[in-house]
Design a protein that fits this description.
Helix 10 runs antiparallel to helix 11 and helix 11 (about 280-295) packs across helix 12 (about 300-315). About 45% of the residues lie in helices and about 15% in strands. The chain has two domains: about 10-220, Spore Coat Polysaccharide Biosynthesis Protein SpsA, Chain A (Alpha-Beta Complex), CATH 3.90.550; about 245-340, no CATH class. The chain contains 13 helices and 13 strands. It has about 350 residues and is of the alpha/beta class. The protein is elongated. The two termini are about 30 Å apart. Helix 2 (about 50-65) links the parallel strand 2 and strand 3 (about 70). The strands form three sheets. The protein has an eight-stranded mixed sheet with strand order 3-2-1-4-9-6-10-8. Strands 5-11-7 form a three-stranded mixed sheet. Strands 12-13 form a two-stranded antiparallel sheet.
Length: about 350
């Protein structure tokens, strides 16, 4: 799907964006600096669907940093596919607009993949920029929020990786048809789907721990931003269970349980003179306590409080999954979740 142009040896960096003008320019500057250390030619392709004012600023910044600017569709997968179709090199590096390339990012990726003919893609760790906020400190305990970004730091073979830092051979990308362009959410889940299709068709994806990008902290330091991210992740997980049903696994969703208990307690309230209402806070406390226990590390009142707060915020993921099951009109999904690896073992 990317064979419209003559392909040459080098790296095409594909960046989807919408708004985020200031952070996107910082990303462009960081990639241009990393290109100075890369042993092969580098081009940057930005695909944007911002409004007129932001789009004009993106165009100016692309011109300043030697990047190509393309107008694209809304869905992030469709943006990346469009960028790949217009890319001119045989390696495709996908990076998000709210990330910054480390100085050695491109050199490490290119050197590693050229030395490994049996590797079709490399994923580097995405390190979230530190923030002084209490929300950021609390959510450092959450694997749901940052775990997948940091996973490549441990090295080894991967089944999939986030597209905040993913290098692919163009041949492998074309062979699986690129990213999906329609899903339940505009962002989230398309990277998991791509990785599963790649490794499922025999392509190899490995971690490159030294090829780092830094993720902007804005999406991890406020209640609103954390809730939105986790809610979106929950919705995308349910979509993934519909396109990869072999990854579906039974799951007790706390949001579903609490909703069911609440409805039952309210229905029984007249007969129990309101005593059934006590089941609601008891159920909520039990669900919160069980999840907080899994997040607890360290001792003292602050550790306990942070674990409870983290567990409460992770409830956004459960709510997102519940809402998605209803949106998809698949009530069975209320009791299932997504398993990253299929039954019968994994190469991960």
């Amino acid at each position: 799907m990317t064979q419209e142009l003559v392909v040459s040896r080098g790296v095409s960096v594909v960046v989807p964006t919408r708004g985020r003008v200031a952070v996107t320019e910082r990303m462009l500057a960081s990639v241009r600096a990393a290109a100075e250390r890369c042993p092969e030619p580098v081009e940057i392709v930005v695909v944007d669907d911002s409004g007129p004012e932001d789009a004009a600023r993106h165009r100016d910044h692309c011109a300043r940093h030697g990047a190509r600017y393309l107008r694209g569709p809304r869905h992030v997968g469709a943006k990346r596919n469009l960028g790949a179709r217009h890319a001119t090199h045989d390696l495709l590096l996908f990076i998000d607009s709210d990330c910054r390339a480390s100085p050695d990012l491109l050199r490490r990726h290119v050197t590693a993949i050229r030395a490994a003919d049996d590797t079709d893609g490399l994923a580097g760790p995405t390190v979230v920029e530190e923030s002084p906020t209490a929300v950021f400190r609390i959510m450092r305990r959450s694997h749901l929020l940052h775990g997948d970004l940091e996973k490549p730091a441990t090295g080894g073979e991967l089944e999939w990786a986030t597209t905040s830092n993913l290098l692919l051979r163009r041949t492998a990308f074309d062979a699986v048809g690129g990213f999906v362009e329609e899903s339940l959410t505009v962002v989230a889940g398309e990277d998991v789907d791509l990785g599963i299709r790649l490794t499922g068709q025999g392509f190899t994806l490995r971690a490159e721990p030294g090829a780092e990008v830094v993720h902007d902290r804005l999406s991890s330091e406020s209640l609103r931003s954390v809730w939105r991210r986790l809610y979106g992740y929950g919705r995308s997980e349910q979509w993934l269970t519909t396109v990869h049903p072999d990854r579906r696994t039974p799951r007790c969703n706390p949001a579903v349980v609490l909703t069911a208990v609440t409805v039952a307690a309210l229905a029984a309230a007249p007969a129990t003179r309101g005593r059934s209402g006590a089941l609601i806070p008891v159920t909520a406390a039990l669900a919160l306590g069980l999840r907080a226990r899994a997040r607890l590390s360290g001792g003292g009142p602050r550790a306990v409080a942070d674990s409870l707060a983290c567990a409460a915020l992770e409830g956004a993921f459960d709510v997102g999954a519940m809402v998605a099951a209803l949106q998809l009109r698949r009530p069975g999904l209320l009791f299932t979740g997504f398993r990253p690896t299929p039954t019968g073992g994994s190469r991960v």
